[in-house]
């Protein structure tokens, strides 16, 4: 898990996103719809950063390594 904690402001921004189910200081939970879309696009050759950016998720807040980690876990599940 990432050691980066989300500020209150970052949490507010993330909570407004339609693909985010929940967010706390330590974690983000995405919708099943986003997870399925991300896995599909990754399988088609897109990089994690591009998938998140195309979906409108602020990669500057989430972090590239965290985005890669999400995809790795979702694909394994």
Taking the alpha carbons of the first and last residues, their distance comes to: 17 Å
Overall form = globular
Low-confidence parts: none
Work out the number of β strands.
Answer: 2
- Strand arrangement in the largest pleated sheet: 1-2
How many domains is the backbone divided into? 1
What is the averaged pLDDT score? 94
Taking all Cα atoms into account, the compactness measure Rg is 12 Å
How many helix segments?
Answer: 5
Order of helices and strands: HEEHHHH
Counting helices, strands and paired strands, the structural category is mainly alpha
Share of helix among residues? 55-70%
Biggest β-sheet description: 2 strands, antiparallel
Proportion of residues in β-strands: 5-15%
């Amino acid at each position: 898990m990432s050691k980066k904690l989300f500020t209150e402001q970052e949490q507010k921004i993330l909570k407004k996103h339609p693909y985010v189910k929940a967010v706390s200081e330590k974690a983000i939970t995405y919708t099943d719809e986003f997870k399925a879309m991300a896995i599909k696009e990754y399988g088609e050759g897109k990089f994690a950063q591009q998938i998140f950016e195309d979906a409108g998720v602020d990669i500057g807040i989430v972090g590239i390594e965290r985005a890669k980690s999400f995809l790795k876990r979702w694909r394994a599940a």
